[in-house]
């Protein structure tokens, strides 16, 4: 589905979401990490902005995601700020959750 200049990319059905979920996706050149905390969903770059480690292998405690490479923690709500992984807007389309790239 096309919306403006962006292309909607389905990631998961809504019934697949659960607290603590971390799911990795590769969409073209983008490596994304979907994180679910309670009923909130966040989509971030899957690589640590400092060390390049796979954040999908990191531990999640509440909103804190720990880099498996160098141990720094990131608040998933703060994505896109200096020193944080980039964050992408979550898009809902019927029973699907996705991202527009």
TrEMBL record:
Keyword Protein transport: no
Molecular-function annotations in GO: 2 iron, 2 sulfur cluster binding; metal ion binding
Coiled coil: none
SUPFAM superfamilies attached to this UniProt entry: ISP domain
Top-rank lineage group of the source organism: Bacteria
Rieske domain location: 9-99
Record-linked Pfam families: Rieske (PF00355)
InterPro entries in UniProt: Rieske_2Fe-2S (IPR017941), Rieske_2Fe-2S_sf (IPR036922)
Keywords, comma-separated and alphabetical: 2Fe-2S, Iron, Iron-sulfur, Metal-binding
Nucleus among keywords: no
UniProt name for this protein: Rieske domain-containing protein
Native organism: Isoalcanivorax pacificus W11-5
Record lineage: Bacteria, Pseudomonadati, Pseudomonadota, Gammaproteobacteria, Oceanospirillales
